[in-house]
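Tutorial, part two.
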Amino acid sequence: MATRKESRNGTAKRGPYKPGKIRDHNFQIILKAAEQEFALNGYRGTTTQKIADRAGVAKPSIHYYFSSKHNLYLAVLDNIIHLWNDYLDTVDADADPAEVLDMFIRKKVELAFTHPEASKVFAMEIIQGAPFLREYIRTEMRTWVREKANFLNIWIEQGRMAPVDPVQLIFLIWSSTQHYADFDTQVLTIMNHAEYEPEMIAHIADFISGMILRGCGLELPVGKSQQRRTG
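Running the prediction step on this input gives:
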């Protein structure tokens, strides 16, 4: 799977599609439509014509940005993986562990509600044995997890957080936050809601962050919960 890489001139190249189009309005419409179609119908049940119809664009517009359905599918996966994980790439070892983990968790919770279809596409890809992502997981994702685990171990060795298994911590954050996208029908039915509401999202973020941080020997950053509830 193609992922973000730095070119020699420092420009980020993203995914198997034309660079420089990420901010293009039509690009975003097509990507969102693709998320919805792949989530509803799976890879095999989705066609570029269905995506074009949902996006309200002509089929040739799809191929202007993406050379094939395969590349569009990879772009959906590429986009959500980086939205999930890019925040941790901006953090250094001098940062406060509680602040970093709290922000990472809250960003993941937010993305569960803003990009639920993309999360479901990723989940289906993994459940099916990662036919398109296996090499990426074996190489780039494995390397990313090891790098972040080493980063967390620095904080542990410094006594700034409890001695937890850093890899399992990353898995826990991934799974607990993505649950609300992948199993939204179950969650909403049990909670007797038609859709997620802002107060629910804030409560979910507070709960997950508080539980995980306490398990790491940390406290929820002062004022974070109240600020998000009133902001």
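The chain has two domains: 5-75, 91-230. In part three we will examine how such features are distributed along the chain.
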